[in-house]
Amino acid sequence: MLKIKDLVKTYGKFVAVNNLNLEIPQGEIYGFVGPNGAGKTTTMKIISGLLTATSGEVMVDNVDVTRNSRKIKESIGYMPDFFGVYDDLKVTEYLDFYASIYKIKEKERKKITDDLLELVDLSNKRESYVDSLSRGMKQRLCLARSLIHNPKLLILDEPASGLDPRARVEMKEILRNLKDMGKTILISSHILSELAELCTHIGIIDNGKMVISGSVSEIMQQVYSSRVIKLKVNDKLEQAEMVLKEFPNIDKITLGENTIQAGFEGSDQDMSRILATLVTRGIPVVTFSQLDGNLEDVFMKVTRGGEVQ
Amino acid sequence: MNINPVLLKEAKVRMRGWRAAGIVALYLVILALVTIFVAYDSYNNIYSSTIDPGRSVGTYSALAVIQFILILFIAPALTAGAISGEREKQTLDLLLCTKLPTRSIILGKLVASISQIILLIIASLPVFSVIFMFGGISIAEIAQLFMFYIITAIAAGSIGIFYSSHMKKTTASTVLTYGTGAFMILGTLFIAWIYMGIFRDNNYKEIFPLLYANPLVGFVSLISEQFGGQGSLAGFLPGIGRTYTGTTKGMSPWIINLIFDGALTVLLITLSARKINPVKRKISIFKKKKI
Asked: Which residue from B12, B16, B97 is facing A78, i.e. has the nearest CB?
């Protein structure tokens, strides 16, 4: 759905985006992570046709963004990191205005507006002035606006920024619904744990460069050279340690109270073989699991002090 | 029929509440007070026992001047914040990322503002009709005057739109718009006076070319022409008085002024639309040659 190749954006001598490459298949949610000033918003604005790239290629649905900027805008729904609402309009008027821009027939507008307001849980505010809405509601209205023309690709720049925890949960829920509806979503955020839950793919950008990109598990694997497994036993802790040492792909074993933590390099099949061996040797295994790396740790690891690792 | 969505939205917002009605009311009150004052003065002329059609010249001139000044003040005010206001509200990017062409955004904003001025002009018709009581002014002449107002308002509005699209802040845009307006009215006159002071001799019968850009010159020439070259206003402006004494032939200054306004409007709208377009197409002569 979205393909970015060797994207460069410079402002004088300052390089905002430096040879960025990115690909998002249809129906995927791609989390775009990076510290402030990393180039996330610049990249998103280039995709949305709000900035021109210095060089490189951006294709949305196999159409070049720079050459067909008007056509491409029908396929993209952009939500910036600010509200951008007309305070002097009512909620329905606001959506109706954008619907008219996309030449949606008047008969269809009401249904689309109603459906969108239901999606973002603002049906009860349809006749309220935008001015009277809370921050979270305005953010949701902005999201509804970006969906008014049923775009294939949604570009959401920090949609949860500045929202209280409840509003964040609500926003996350809406994004899950959009994922279920098959929308391709590029979302940037600083709330990495939320992205990990929501996104199928993650890309970490720093100083305009894509530091790492791939599925969440791929990234974990790339960043951490080995996985960490943890098991809890009822008894026979030392015996369990001996069994684990028999496997060449296990190292750095540390013992706790009835628990063992060890580094592991191998496939899921290798892991199940280890568990089977432990059980057949009579080790009373209570739990056996892989420790998930924290995305925040990954972020810090690859973008330490603004320097790419 | 597809009406420009920006125009529709602007019209809805501008006409909402008491503000629009208040502006019309205030505008009409000012015009009505001027009319009452001038008409009262005419009625109390002790040297005349009947209504003199010639006296309508005074009432008409006074109304026309007041309306002209009001329009010149209102038109830039309505447009100077049109685009910069969108920028300040952070809604411009949202418009630009839709498939709406930038010239539609500019035209929608301009036409919405001009519509408000046209509303004021139309609302002033009953006040102007007082002139018919005295006679001497035809409907065609009033229509001519109103057409001049509308084209001048569009030109003044496009100056506002131009600065609004180029400036980040509405305040800066407003200052520059009124500054340009002041230059076009007073600055060109000043230059003309200096020029004529240095070079004028008995053979000088032409209007100084820069003055064709001056809306005041256009207005004065129109009013003077309607009165057959009479009127004290023409005496103030260099070259204008001569134009209607049979010494100069050719197109009337007010028509040239309107043509200038039209060309200026097209130029400023094009530049404004280009300025806010995020994907600017380079003009071929400025394109860098590929090595």
From this structure: B97
CA-to-CA separations, A69 to A2, A288, B271, in angstroms, rounded? 14, 53, 19
On the question of pLDDT at A126 being above 60, the answer is: yes
List chain B residues with pLDDT less than 50.
Answer: 233, 242-247, 283-291
> With contacts defined as CB-CB under 8 Å, which chain B residues touch A76?
97
Instruction: Return the residue matching tokens 């954006």.
Output: A9
Phi, psi of A140 (to 5 degrees): -70, -35
Closest CB to B8 among A71, A78, A100 = A100
Tokens (6 digits) for A273: 């073989």
Average pLDDT over residues A273-295: 84
User: pLDDT tens digits for B185-219?
Assistant: 999 888 888 877 776 655 555 677 888 888 998 88
Cα A226–Cα A232–Cα A236 angle in degrees, nearest 5: 115
Helix (H, G, I), strand (E, B) or coil at B85: helix
Q: Torsion angle of alpha carbons A273, A275, A279, A282, nearest 10°?
A: 100
Exposed/middle/buried for residue A235 (C-beta within 10 Å: 0-12, 13-18, 19+): exposed
For residue A251, the SS3 value is strand
The distance from CA A21 to its chain's CA centroid, rounded to whole angstroms, is 16
- The total of other beta-carbon atoms located within 10 Å of residue B132's CB is 13
User: With b meaning 16 or more CB within 10 Å and e meaning fewer, what string describes A241-264?
Assistant: bebbeeeeebeeeeeeeeebebbb
Structural domains of chain A ordered from first start: 2-221 (3.40.50.300), 226-292 (3.30.70.260)
ipTM of the modeled complex: 0.78
Six-digit token string for B27 = 């505008």
Measure A66 CA to nearest chain B CA, in Å.
7
Nearest partner of B118 among B143, B153, B145, judged by Cα? B153
Q: Does B8 touch chain A (CB under 8 A)?
A: yes
